[in-house]
Automatic annotation (TrEMBL):
<dbReference type="InterPro" id="IPR004161">
    <property type="entry name" value="EFTu-like_2"/>
</dbReference>
<comment type="function">
    <text>Required for accurate and efficient protein synthesis under certain stress conditions. May act as a fidelity factor of the translation reaction, by catalyzing a one-codon backward translocation of tRNAs on improperly translocated ribosomes. Back-translocation proceeds from a post-translocation (POST) complex to a pre-translocation (PRE) complex, thus giving elongation factor G a second chance to translocate the tRNAs correctly. Binds to ribosomes in a GTP-dependent manner.</text>
</comment>
<feature type="compositionally biased region" description="Basic and acidic residues">
    <location>
        <begin position="611"/>
        <end position="625"/>
    </location>
</feature>
<dbReference type="InterPro" id="IPR000640">
    <property type="entry name" value="EFG_V-like"/>
</dbReference>
<keyword id="KW-0378">Hydrolase</keyword>
<dbReference type="InterPro" id="IPR035647">
    <property type="entry name" value="EFG_III/V"/>
</dbReference>
<dbReference type="InterPro" id="IPR005225">
    <property type="entry name" value="Small_GTP-bd"/>
</dbReference>
<dbReference type="Pfam" id="PF00679">
    <property type="entry name" value="EFG_C"/>
</dbReference>
<dbReference type="InterPro" id="IPR027417">
    <property type="entry name" value="P-loop_NTPase"/>
</dbReference>
<dbReference type="GO" id="GO:0005525">
    <property type="term" value="F:GTP binding"/>
</dbReference>
<dbReference type="InterPro" id="IPR031157">
    <property type="entry name" value="G_TR_CS"/>
</dbReference>
<dbReference type="InterPro" id="IPR035654">
    <property type="entry name" value="LepA_IV"/>
</dbReference>
<dbReference type="GO" id="GO:0043022">
    <property type="term" value="F:ribosome binding"/>
</dbReference>
<protein>
    <recommendedName>
        <fullName>Elongation factor 4</fullName>
        <ecNumber>3.6.5.n1</ecNumber>
    </recommendedName>
</protein>
<dbReference type="GO" id="GO:0003924">
    <property type="term" value="F:GTPase activity"/>
</dbReference>
<dbReference type="InterPro" id="IPR000795">
    <property type="entry name" value="T_Tr_GTP-bd_dom"/>
</dbReference>
<dbReference type="InterPro" id="IPR013842">
    <property type="entry name" value="LepA_CTD"/>
</dbReference>
Length: 625
């Protein structure tokens, strides 16, 4: 462990450098961050393990970063000790919002590019975000140790993009540690120190927070102006609430309590408050005795892209689910939710997510961190429905779809950018066309790789598009998208009926051309999942009152003739007639119980198959190598 001379709260502002590491998914941010921790001595060789800053179990297991992590790292250059605030950010498109918040806490960004892959879709989107935030960009090629690395080619690509010389692009290896020392020196030289006013009243931006069951809410802050001392009463500017801070400190990489935090420093505050509504990401903290007049700009609330219902398997767990969502929201500002009831599934919440991976991570965290057993309904986007009578409805859930004559349905669109090697242009075009995409421009990033722009319905892109793109391009294409307007479309609501009863959890809004496929797929799936009963069960898919698909679960039949050896045929016939009558009566009275497992399986297999997990991407890449 290192000892610092720069003590938190007493560090000269001119010696502070705050930077984040941004990159496309898998280009090695967390690995480079590991080497920085090791080289600077904040983590000893013995304690080191891969992806040190990915603290959640899910992050470690999946090998992806979900949450940004900020650490304080000392670095000595030319005999002067500097204090680096380093933030490792996630790379997946669903977590772009996390990146945008991290950028707010920094003056510089290390733009990491895999030297075997080159620029990818999220490299560009993260770079544009960093430029928007006026950050100093340090371009870096990673993985130069790999035999397939082509640093010269990709340095030229980056230089072309940033308008710099290829020699300005640093070359490092997160694996071997080569070039990391030069990188840290360059950060000290090029990233400007923070520009807050140390003598002004305190203003600190809350850029993240997390609920700790033992200590309450831990709030991560970036000090902008002034100096915050450990025992000062603090005020949350937008809420107007006042708290005694229980503890003030820095993350290094464990939490270390300090006496103060000065302008430009990144650290944490624990207020001891357990009510999650008391701490809002994006709020400004000031002191009670000398409050600042103007709060900091804060963050724009992210707009959810997909919605899905979350229901506890055991309905008695509804209050626990509410509490768990409240706590998770603290750590995941992009999550939105409101109570919902379903005839089939009982009480639950309709939740809004930034994408399917986000949705998957939230349900997994709810079950791991809060021990909840949940069923999630098929995801859908938001539609604006106008009826013949002029009434307008915002439909976030297929069961809210109004009855009656529909005049117009409007769906959200996204602007998508796809980067692919040029030999796959044709396949990408076909795929986009299948998904109702409108082609825009196409630019060559280098003689081998192109960036294609498309406008597409959000509903087409969030579900299985990414997976299909990966498989059609052997894992080489990358995708980025953001919301971009809306359009009227030919959409219908497909209902699923079991024994004539509409099961709301299975309803979906789909494009007219795909309604038949959805109906057939769902009825087939349910036929396999629902156990046979004493009577016949019809499973139907319907648009309004029109049935578009049907499957039948055959009745279980007891062998009533078992005891009849030989003998009179009329006796056998009589027994069969009696059985038939009994079945008919049962069918009239019988009620089909859909087992919970069938709900879970029917609703989840879609995403399980289409999961855009990194395993699949890696598998696709491997098979290509
Ligand atoms: N050979 C080699 N492999 C590397 C290097 N840097 C990272 N890797 C590997 O690349 C994979 C992805 O690295 P991560 O550090 O998890 O990538 P990331 O950018 O943090 O990923 P996300 O946070 O999920 O976006 C891991 O298997 C690393 O071991 C490197 O310099 N050389």
């Amino acid at each position: 462990m290192v000892t610092y001379t720069n003590q938190p709260g007493f560090t000269q502002q001119s010696l502070i450098r705050n930077f984040c590491i941004i990159a496309h998914i898998d280009h090695g941010k967390s690995t480079v961050a590991d080497r920085v921790l090791q080289l600077s001595g904040v983590v000893s060789q013995r304690d080191m393990h891969d992806q040190f800053l990915d603290r959640m179990d899910i992050e470690q297991e999946r090998g992806i970063t979900i949450k940004s992590q900020a650490v304080r790292v000392p670095w000595v250059k030319d005999g002067t000790e500097y204090t680096l605030g380093m933030i490792d950010t996630p790379g997946h498109v669903d977590f772009t919002y996390e990146v945008s918040r991290a950028l707010e806490a920094c003056e510089g960004a290390v733009l990491l590019v895999d030297a075997t892959q080159g620029i990818e879709a999220q490299t560009l989107s993260n770079l544009y975000m960093a430029i928007e935030h006026d950050l100093t960009i340090i371009p870096v090629l990673n993985k130069i140790d790999l035999p397939s690395a082509d640093p010269d080619r990709h340095a030229a690509e980056i230089a072309n993009l940033l308008g710099c010389s290829p020699d300005d692009v640093l070359r490092v290896s997160g694996k071997t540690g080569e070039g990391i020392r030069e990188l840290l020196n360059q950060i000290v030289d090029e990233v400007p120190p923070p520009h807050g006013q140390s003598q002004a009243p305190v203003r600190a931006l809350i850029f993240d927070s997390v609920y700790d069951p033992y200590r309450g809410i831990v709030t991560y802050i970036r000090m902008v102006d002034g100096e915050l001392k450990a025992r000062q009463k603090i005020r949350m500017m937008s809420l107007g609430t006042v708290h005694d801070p229980g503890e003030l400190g820095v993350i290094c990489p464990d939490m270390i309590a300090t006496k103060a935090l000065g302008a430009g420093e990144v650290g944490y505050v624990i207020t001891g408050v357990k009510d999650v509504a008391q701490s809002k990401v994006g709020d400004t903290i000031t002191t009670e005795t000398l409050p600042a007049e103007q709060p900091l700009p804060g963050y724009r609330d992210p707009q959810p892209m997909v919605y899905s219902g979350l229901f506890p398997v055991d309905n008695a767990q509804f209050p626990e689910l509410r509490e768990a969502l409240d706590k998770l929201k603290l750590n995941d500002a992009a999550l939105v939710y409101e109570p919902e009831t379903s005839v089939a599934l009982g009480f639950g919440f309709r939740c809004g997510f930034l994408g399917l991976l986000h949705m998957e991570i939230v349900s997994e965290r709810l079950s791991r961190e809060f021990g909840l057993d949940l069923i999630s309904t098929a995801p859908n986007v938001t539609y604006k429905v106008t009826m013949e009578d002029g009434s307008q409805h915002l439909v976030k859930n297929p069961s809210e779809f109004p009855d009656g004559k529909v005049k117009k349905i409007v769906e959200p669109l996204v602007a998508a950018s796809i980067i692919t090697p040029k030999e796959f242009i044709g396949s990408v075009m076909d795929l986009c066309q299948d998904h109702r995409g409108q082609m825009g421009t196409m630019e060559y990033l280098s003689p081998e790789r192109v960036e294609m722009h498309y406008t597409m319905p959000l509903a087409e892109i969030v579900f299985d598009f990414f997976d299909q793109l990966k498989s059609r391009t052997k894992g080489y294409a990358s995708l980025d998208y953001h919301e971009d307007g809306e359009q009227a479309a030919d959409l219908v609501k497909v209902d699923i009926l079991i024994q004539g009863d509409k099961i709301d959890a299975f309803s979906a809004i789909v494009h007219k051309e795909k309604s038949y496929t959805y109906g057939v797929m769902m009825t087939k799936k349910l036929r396999e999942l629902i156990p046979r009963q004493q009577f016949e069960i019809p499973i139907q898919a319907a648009i309004g009152s029109r049935i578009i698909a049907r499957e039948t679960i055959r009745a279980l039949r007891k062998d009533v003739l078992a005891k009849c050896y030989g003998g009179d045929i009329t006796r056998k016939r009589k027994l069969l007639e009696k059985q038939k009558a009994g079945k008919k009566r049962m069918k009239m009275l019988g009620h089909v119980e859909v087992p919970q497992e069938a709900f879970i399986a029917a609703l989840s297999t879609g995403d399980a198959e289409d999961r855009d997990s990194k395993d699949k991407i890696r598998a696709a890449k491997k098979s290509n190598e």
